[in-house]
Amino acid sequence: MDSRTEIRVHFTDQERAGLTALTAGLRGVAESDLSEEDALVAALELALTRLIDDFEVPDPAAREQVQRARDNLRAHWIRGSATL
After folding, report:
1. Dihedral, 1, 9, 72, 30 alpha carbons, nearest 10
2. How many CA atoms lie within 13 Å of 77's alpha carbon, on the beta-carbon side?
3. Distance (Å) of CA 27 to CA 6, 38, 52, 80, 83
4. DSSP 67
5. Cβ contacts of residue 19 below 8 Å, gap of 6+?
6. What is the tens place of the pLDDT at every residue in 55-75?
C-alpha cells in the first residue's frame, strides 16, 4: 500500500521559480514527465546524500537518522528515476 501524507508548503516567488527550474531540468535529464513533487523528492534525496557524503553531522544519532532516511527513501523509491 502506498502511504502518503499531504504537506502544504508556501513558497516565495524566487523559491517557486527554483522549483519550476528544478522540475524542468529533471524532466530533461530523466527524459520523462516528472512532477514538481518528484523534483522535491529528488532534492530531498540529494540533500540527505550531501549530508552523508560531504558533511560530518556531529551528532551520531542525527547522522544515523539521516543515513536511515536516505536509505529508506531509496529503498522505497516510487518517483521513477528522478534522483539527482
Report:
1. 90
2. 15
3. 23, 10, 26, 11, 11
4. H
5. 11, 36, 39, 40
6. 989 999 999 999 999 988 888
Q: Which stretches of the chain are DSSP H helices?
A: 13-30, 36-53, 60-75
| The three cell numbers locating residue 20 | 519550476
Give 41's contacts (C-beta < 8 A, 6+ positions apart): 73, 79, 82
**Tens-digit pLDDT profile for residues 4-42:** 888 899 999 999 999 999 999 988 888 888 889 888 988
Crossing angle of helices 36-53/60-75, nearest 10°?
A: 140
10, 15, 20, 57 from 53: Cα distances, Å: 29, 25, 27, 10
